[in-house]
Design a protein that fits this description.
Elements lengths: L16 E5 L27 H13 L4 E5 L9 H14 L4 E6 L4 H10 L4 E5 L5 H8 L4 H13 L3 E8 L8 H10 L3 E6 L10 H4 L3 H8 L5 E4 L8 E5 L5 E5 L12 E4 L4 E3 L7 E3 L1 H6 L4 H11 L23 H4 L2
Parallel strand pairs: 1-2, 1-10, 2-3, 3-4, 4-5, 5-6, 6-9
Antiparallel strand pairs: 7-8, 8-9, 10-11, 11-12
Helix pairs in contact: 1-2, 3-5
Bound molecules: S-adenosylmethionine (SAM).
Length: 335
Amino acid sequence: MSTVSSMIDPFGRAIDYLRVSVTDRCDFRCVYCMAEDMTFLPKRDLLSLEELDRLCTVFIEKGVRRLRLTGGEPLVRKNIMHLVRELSRHLKSGSLDELTLTTNGSQLERFAGELADCGVKRINVSIDTLDPEKFRSITRWGHLDRVMRGIEAAAAAGLKVKLNTVALKGFNEAEIPAMLSWAHGRGMDMTVIETMPLGEIDGDRTDQYLPLSQLRADLEKRFTLTDIPYKTGGPARYVEVAETGGRLGFITPMTHNFCESCNRVRITCTGTLFMCLGQEDAADLRSPLRASEGNDLLSGAIDEAISRKPKGHDFVIDRRTRRPAVSRHMSVTGG
Ligand code: SAM
C-alpha cells in the first residue's frame, strides 16, 4: 500500500525518494569525480550500520518509498550486506517499494546473489567506456573485466542492470552508440549523464563537459529516438531506441534543469542531510539521532530541513569561474 509522504517541501513537492551515501570511500578514482589524492572521513565520524538503519527507517515512516544506497562505492563499506538485509524488512512489510543501489560493479560478483536474495530487483552500474585501457585511465584504478564479471553475476542472479555513463567530451562521445547497442543487446537500459561541477578535481571540467542536447543530436543521425513517459523515480527523461528496442535515459542537470519535479533528498555517511545535490545548505541529523533513543527529535529535524528544501540548483560550468559550483564531491553526497 502506498502512503502519501508527510514530507512536503515549500514548493509542494512530496519527498518519497532517499539516497544514502553509506561511505565516502571508493576503490576507483574516476577523474571527473575525485582527485587522485583524496582525504576521506575518519572512520569514527561515520554513522554505524545500525544508525544508518534507524535513520532510513524514520524516513520510511515519514513517507520514503524508494531507497538507493550509494557512495563512494556502497559495496566497499564493511558489512554492507548487513544493512541491506536489515532494510529489506521494509520491502517485506510493504512500507518500501524499492531498495536499490548505484555501484561501480567492482564488488558485484561477490554480492549480486545476496542482493537479489534481499529483494533488490534492479541496480545501476556506472561504466564510462567498454575499452579496458580507457576504463583504467578514467577510473585511475579500475579493472573493466572485474566489472564485466560483476554484471554477469548480477544478470545470473536475476537483477535488472542499468548502465550509467557520464558523457565526457573527447573521451567517450564517439563510443556511446556502441555502448548503447552493447547494453541494449543484453537487455540493459542505459542512462547518460552530464558532468556536474561538484568538488575540486585535478582536471578542468570545461574540457570534459558535453551537453547531452549535442549527444542526442549525434545519436539521432544513427538511431530513431522517441520520447516516452517511462519513469524510474529519478531525474532521467527516457527515449525508446527503435533500432535496438531498448531505453535510453538522459540526465541533464546542466542543459535542462529537472528540479521542478524533484522528489528526493540525500544523506551522507555522517548523517548530514542535503536537500539538494547542487546547494550547500544541509542539516545535521547525527546529533538528534544520538541525542535520544526515541525518534521525535530526529523527525522534527527532518521536517525542519524539508521546509528549507531549495527550489533548485544553479550549476554553471564556466571557464572564468574555475571553482566548482559545490565544494563537496559527488562521492560525499552520493550520486
Ligand atoms: N561508486 C558508485 C558508482 O560508481 O556508481 C556510486 C557513487 S558514484 C559518485 C555515482 C554516479 O555519479 C556515477 O555514475 C558517477 O559516474 C557519477 N558522477 C560522479 N561525479 C560526477 C560528476 N561530477 N558529474 C556527473 N556525474 C558524476
